[in-house]
Structures are given as C-alpha cells and as structure tokens.
Amino acid sequence: MTVSWEEVGWEELGPRVGRCRLPVWDCTAGLVVGDGAALMIDAGSSLREGARLGAEARWLLGGDRRVTHLALTHPHFDHVFGAASFAGVEVYGAVGVDMVLTGERAREELRADAVRYGLDASEAAAAADLLVRPRHHVSGEWTLDLGGGTQVLLANVGPGHTAHDLAVLVPGSPSSPEVVFCGDLVEESGEPQAGPDAVPAHWPAALDRLLDLGGEDAVYVPGHGAAVDAAFVRAQRDALAARFGVS
C-alpha cells in the first residue's frame, strides 16, 4: 500500500483490511486489498460520497489500481447510492436484492427515503436515476479470491434488517482476528433500525449466523458505529429477540 490507512482517515482492522466511518449517518464502508483486486464494502449515500471512497481507495492502493469488486450489504440509500461511482466493478448482493433496486417505484422509494433523512434532493435524484443492480447474487456463501492469498467470504445471512442482508468475512491469521462486516444487522451508534422492510422474526437468527461465521474472537464491524466484539453482537441479538417477541 502506498499510504497508510490513517493517512486517509481510515481505520486499520487487520492486514489488508480497513474501514471508514462516513459523515452525517456514521455509515461504514470497508476495503479489502489483495495483490490483484480490491473489494469495497458498501458505497456511501450519494454519488459524491462514492467518488470520495473511490479516490481514497486509489490512494491506498497506489499506482493506477482501483476498486475491482463491490459488495452491497443491503438495499438502503446510505449503503447503495454511491455505487454508480465505481464504474466497471463486479457488484455482489444477496439474492433478490436486484428486485429491490429495479424499476421506477424502487428508485422513487429510495429517493424519498434519502430526502426524508436529509440528503440533498438533487443528489438523491441523481443517485436514484443511476441505481446499480448487483450482477452476482449470493444465495449461500461465495468466496472471492483477491490475489496474494487474500480471500473473503460473502455470506447471505438474512433476512433480518432487510430481506436481503449480506455479510462479508475477512479470514484472520495467527496474529490477527477474523473481521466481519455486518451491514445494519448490527449497529453500535444507535438502536438497530427496523423499517417497513425489516423481517423482525428472523433478525435474531441472522445474528446467530453472524456469530457462527466469525466466532468468539472476531472483530464485528457494524453498519453504523464503532467495531464491536461477539459479546456485543450477542447482547444485541438478545435485545432484538425480546423487543420483537421471538427466540
């Protein structure tokens, strides 16, 4: 890497993996760097924010290297509206998420949601017009080889926060823990948000799958807020189960 994570305002989570916390909604974006490819996890809340993420990734990667793969953890505006800024990348999402991102009604619902939460109306309209549909649909687990021994596992662990929740596991090593990007299945900076597209009856089970995926020693990266441990995820799982009356 040409510059350090800290030099561009990112948090290093392990060898070749880092994340940044974007302003306004404290939304996480992640980056995993291989020798031949690089995976961005979520794309920010606007085309401008996506362009910022792409530029920072280029500084980190060095030379003329760019992001080659993009994983969308779920179809909410603050995670997908920047995707069109990553031209030519291979885009991954949980199976069925493309249906949420297709058609005039879907674009209008996401645009209206973004404006309701404070995104500039012109920025919301531009991003909604350019919504990106994943080309690759993950129904179970999908391993990506980024080169140089760097692999990541994409896992369809939902439904929960939405009907289409994707997690990303970066395997650890003897000297570093696994890192699990959770999307909004886990939130640290506030109470988990259950909108009209949430599936509360299955959310605790989705968190059980996250814990099985990462294990007790993993670093869990919420969609919003600081990185947490397995105990935090388990406590949030139990709180959601009590909140929604499920086991």
UniProtKB/TrEMBL annotation:
Database matches in InterPro entries: Metallo-B-lactamas (IPR001279), NDM-1-like (IPR050855), RibonucZ/Hydroxyglut_hydro (IPR036866)
Superkingdom of the source species: Bacteria
SMART domains in UniProt: Lactamase_B (SM00849)
Residue intervals of the Metallo-beta-lactamase domain: 26-224
Coiled coil: none
Gene3D superfamilies xref list: Ribonuclease Z/Hydroxyacylglutathione hydrolase-like
Name this polypeptide is given: MBL fold metallo-hydrolase
Organism annotation: Streptomyces bluensis
